[in-house]
Amino acid sequence: MSQNALHDPRELIAFRIGDQEFCVDIRAVREIRGWAPATPLPGAPAYVRGVINLRGAVLPIVDLSGRLGLGSAVPSARHVIIVARLGMRTVGLLVEAVSDILSISEDAIQATPDVACDTVRSFVKGVIPMDGRMISLIALDGLLPEAEVEEAA
Q: What SS3 class is residue 119?
């Protein structure tokens, strides 16, 4: 990575799950929409809430809280769905609320601590200390194994 790339601002969308804050690269986000009940899919992983109709397309909804091992979410009117691209697929990520748009430099992102298990390290790519908060950076490509993306879609 060039020296300039370390200091060029990177745009991230921050959101809450429980008492924790996470963020994803804004370039992967297509839209943010309110919670809509999903139709369950038999045999889907527990963290796949089901599917919704998004302007004629079937959109799988991933309960990000459940996927991160924080317990399944109980969706309410305040929950939102972040519609994002994961590789060649579009999925909805169920989160409690979008909290911020961050503009940070690459060198502000610290490595995921070694105490995290391999599963967490596969999709938490770093931690950003900011204003007394710790925000975990999620790499969407590690969130769903390819076989599960195929099943969910």
A: helix
